[in-house]
Amino acid sequence: MPGKHSDSATSELCEKCKENISILVVRAKPICHDCFARYVHTKAIKRLESFRVNFAASPDQQRKILLPLSHGVSSTTLLHILDLHLNTQRSKTNRTGFAISVLVVDEGSLDPARLDKVRERYANHDYASLPLHDVFRLLPDDASLRAFLPESQVQEVCSTQEQLTSLIASLTSATARADVLTTLRTRLIVEHAKQTGCESILWGDSTTRLAEKTLAETAKGRGFSLPWQISDGKSPFDINFHYPLRDVLKKELFSYVDLAEPALSALVYEPQSGATQASMSSKNTTIDDLMKQYFESVEENFPSIVSNVVRTTGKLEVPTGATSNPRCSLCGMPVPDGRFGIHGWGGDQHGGADDAAAVSGGSLCYGCTRSIPQRGTAVASK
Amino acid sequence: MPPSPCALCHTNRALILRPKDHSKLCKACFITVFETEIHHTITTNALFTRGERIAIGASGGKDSTVLASVLKTLNERYDYGLDLVLLSIDEGIKGYRDDSLETVKRNAEQYGMDLTILGYDELYGWTMDQVVEQVGKKGNCTYCGVFRRQALDRGAARLGVKHVVTGHNADDVAETVLMNLLRGDLPRLSRTTSIITSTPSASSDPASNTNIKRSKPLKYAYEKEIVLYAHHKSLDYFSTECIYSPEAFRGSARALIKNLERVRPSAILDVVRSGEDMAKLVPGSDEGCGGTCSSNIPVAEEEEGGCGSANGRTVGGDMANMEKQLAQNDTAADQNLEVEITSKKINGAGMPLATGKKGKKGFTPRKSTKQVMGQCKICGYLSSQDVCKACVLLGGLNKARPKNKIEIGYEVQDLQQRDQGADGVANALQRTSIGGD
Questions:
Q1: Average pLDDT, integer, range A314-331
Q2: Could you give the domains of chain A?
């Protein structure tokens, strides 16, 4: 996975500084250790110019941002870079441009010792850990989420953990389960950021991850939401989204993890790489897995194409007045013209019988309707 | 496990697992559902009007054969009132196109439709066999694709037909959406996802090469279902691939589409839906509603389902070439960053990052300009340049030719146009009758 290391027998000079011996080939250029670190730092910090030190503000008016940490390569690297950046700001100007709040979402397999190690190494930030099922507790309009629970669960009063378990169990495919889990995780992170007073969320998505997301959401029928999901700036949730690592490839981050001093490997936990290759049967493979495999192979030989996909999608514009469109109850995206459900467009081949179900089917966007099973009878009875 | 009954009629035994939604159907119900869905696509998008004359782009392959069969069936069943004709383009490839055209001739007899065959040599003075002799096998697909795009419109104009239907299916459209994302081609997204496109006209001349509608009635039909339909109706179609593109293999987008379909059957339609939604998000695009209302989107650069539609339209070197070009763009952008880094190094020696000394913001690419459609100076066909691409390629071919045995008759005047049209039809009829012997 790391970038190609140059052969020590035929070492050549770093192409940037012309002084040190190169240890890595980045985008077809040999580069040394220091220049590579500077390369990654520059790419990330360049994206955060709006978070520079605000000398006009008083020290107690500190801006707060949230960093969701999954213990993967990308979010761990982002935390490392931001920590370094804040230390530099503090040592030069005796204050920082923002404060970091780190959130770890527990989906059942979280090892608390991992978070302790991170906290120990980057001690100057707030840390929180929340279970995923807290999304049912935090969302103010949780009634709309509860509507997707299976029939038997609606009547009873049960814990948020049981609600989450039964919701996921009612989904019929691995892609649907992965899709809903991702959506709920995003909602949880957003709600936590709002309630803790953060003005922005810094996601650790690399170029490769954003390209994967572009094609995965396209394949799930959420093309309309791509401007919200890929671009820096406003999100549909009244909070800003930023992707500081959007110009760095995933393989470059893997190299960075190995080369940082001390190495970040002890903090990183990437469980999926083995599991992804093992489960090649179509039963367990998800659309996200497929796109991940695809772009990891494209990235090896054609890294500029990966960048180009992200750049292209970044050009898509949110239509004027889009924020006033009705929202999907699950993912929260504004649906153009309120076209909910999978009916009522050119590709829908069924006649009027389903129109009644579509009207009473609630307010899910096309992509979420593909994941959540239809409950026409139950929904119509409400 | 006992055989399950059909999900629709609950009487017959289910023999077909439907690719689109994995429902189990018997043969009769599958055929009915397939045809009804095409009918639904035609009516909801208002593709046809009563009394309209429609040319079906027929290649002898499965898509156009199924299209012709379904349109004939629906035209009779629902009384569209259409006049259907078959229009074939003969690229002049021995051993491939002449065999597939035999299939089209048989189809014309079976369906009772008029058939017109136009050859590249008739339109351009060159057959693909001759082009390959001249330029070799590499790159000849470019000539064929450019010629074919124009040929269908010029053939329709000769017949006086204002509407051409093609056999593009959902897999083709979804593949094109993904390819355009991978290539970074946003303006093309709108064109490829629209079910109706047309060649805008600078003149109101009814006999000109413009003002011809194109539509794709099979846009929401899966390729696998088209094959199943052809099989269960015992349709006669030709399935050999083009002999001049043996190196064409499944492109990235094609393989990706097939993998997606395996993971989730609806993914192909989901990609088509996303493509339609994204087309409205492209900056500078006309505010159409999913391409349904916009019937005047220019067709000029729409990709045809070319020879060997089962193969990807991406040749192996495309991604490498694009990578090289994009890498150069990135290098140019990096020059700015490099200058910035150097200046920082001078100011703050040893500091990894200087604060508050940001120089240039970086490389800002210019917005792509919109294409303006005009007419080719030489042949009068639609073109955004002075001379259309086919004439440019033709000029290159003719320069290398020792002497011109066949002169291309350009249709400059109305009278000449009508004469050409009449001659074309007569020649086609002769060819048909010869084939009948």
A1: 81
A2: 61-268+285-318 (3.40.50.620)
